[in-house]
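Why run this: before we spend reagent on co-expression, it is cheaper to look at a predicted model of the complex and decide which construct boundaries make sense. The entries below are exactly what would go into the expression plan.
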Amino acid sequence: DAEITQSPRHKITETGRQVTLACHQTWNHNNMFWYRQDLGHGLRLIHYSYGVQDTNKGEVSDGYSVSRSNTEDLPLTLESAASSQTSVYFCASGRGLSTDTQYFGPGTRLTVL
Amino acid sequence: GDSVTQMEGPVTLSEEAFLTINCTYTATGYPSLFWYVQYPGEGLQLLLKATKADDKGSNKGFEATYRKETTSFHLEKGSVQVSDSAVYFCALSEKAAGNKLTFGGGTRVLVKP
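The model came back. Tokens follow.
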């Protein structure tokens, strides 16, 4: 069965370190998204990609970067982790139309000390 | 820009009670509307959707009708179960935005036996 996976599921890091969160999907979807979920803020879009070599900023992109070198993967990098980036991160993918469903990964809980 | 507003929780109910979660939206075009559900410790999954005005989405006993005149997409269930305890997110996707979703803040529902 097709799926979307995230790793690691939990991560503790220190302020200033670079951190990369992995996202891998086997749906063969063109579109991939990264969100963060914080209490009181719901889900906020960090970055997204509509295909290989395409990346776009979302509403909370400062301090984050992504790259898309193949269809299956969209890793999220925190260039220099800050305590404000402590959050739960979700990756999602979808085919491309506005009527299409997005499929979510299980999430990565990141703590920055 | 686009926005989604949903009632704040938590909503606490007894088993077999009627559930309504209000959702209203602001969009420039004619969006598709979604309800996603997040069970404890999991990622989001699609509960139901409606892609044009007057459409009714339904799944697992939940229903929501796309009301263009009131820009609303309220979620209802006639008789909730303990297993319906979760966080519910209303979301929209504009045609021009492809698969990109704008989420409401989420409503936590707790059903007690």
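Chain B has a mean pLDDT of 93. The CA atoms of residues 56 and 96 of chain B lie 23 Å apart. Bring this page to Monday's planning discussion.
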